[in-house]
Design brief:
The chain has five helices and ten strands, in the order ββββαβββααβααββ. It is an alpha+beta fold. The strands form two sheets. Strands 1, 2, 3, 4, 7, 8, 9 and 10 form an eight-stranded mixed β-sheet that branches. A two-stranded antiparallel sheet has the order 5-6. The longest helix is centred in the middle third of the chain and has 19 residues.
Length: 224
């Protein structure tokens, strides 16, 4: 099972950050006033310390929902549609908000309890796009094969953001197992517990022909 994370920074610098067994990270350009730090990823099992995005989106679109729910199916052997996706969304939101309701130690950093998030369909679609690409093209990274980043994928959905974060994972078979893995990892745990976020979306995509079978993406944000 593999897990990766994106966190938040507040400085206007670009810094690489990787975890144990990971690469050295890579940085991508960001709109003025933003920070984007792309973390490396570790070999299975393991985590990185993540990457972070803070600032304003260059996209001036709506901060609300998207009529596209982010569900559906594409690619040989890939599944994801209908009530099962809604069930996953409900379970994921409930699990994240239950975690945020309790103060916790995220790898030595004490994170206080914070308020619940609301679900946003634009963020769900951004998560679905990335999970689908990882599944279809059998890779595992925050950076898409087209060079897309968590922030650019959110902007592409018309979401005008103030902060953006992303967690990804691969191989876990249920919401409970992937959430446990994220909460056991300091960087992912900090994302889940970050009080700067007010909304989230998530998606999982299954492809029996891929390396890990199932790919998960959580996207957190706060609108402008």
């Amino acid at each position: 099972m593999r897990i990766l994370t994106v966190l938040i920074l507040s400085m206007a610098t670009l810094v690489g950050c990787g975890g144990s067994g990971s690469d050295s990270g890579s940085s991508s350009a960001a709109p003025s006033g933003n920070t984007v730090t792309n973390g490396g990823f570790s070999e299975r099992p393991g985590t990185d310390e993540g990457n972070q995005t803070t600032g304003g989106s260059s996209n001036t679109g709506s901060t609300g929902g998207n009529s596209n729910s982010g569900t559906g199916s594409s690619g040989s052997g890939q599944t994801g549609s209908g009530s099962s996706d809604q069930t996953m969304a409900d379970e994921m939101l409930a699990a994240v908000n239950a975690a945020r309701a309790q103060a916790r130690d995220c790898g030595g950093t004490w994170m206080p309890a914070v308020g619940p998030l609301t679900w946003d369909y634009a963020l769900e679609q951004a998560a679905f796009v990335h999970s689908s690409n990882m599944s279809n093209y059998d890779f595992f990274n925050h950076t898409g094969l087209d060079g897309s980043t968590p922030s650019s994928r959110v902007s592409a959905q018309g979401y005008s953001w103030r902060t953006v974060g992303e967690n990804i994972a691969a191989g876990q078979k249920s919401v409970s197992s992937v959430m446990q893995g994220w909460l056991d990892s300091p960087g992912h745990c900090k994302n889940i517990m970050n009080g700067s976020f007010t909304q989230m979306g998530a998606a999982s995509v299954t492809n029996s022909g891929s390396t890990y079978g199932i790919y998960w993406t959580q996207v957190f944000a706060a609108p402008k």
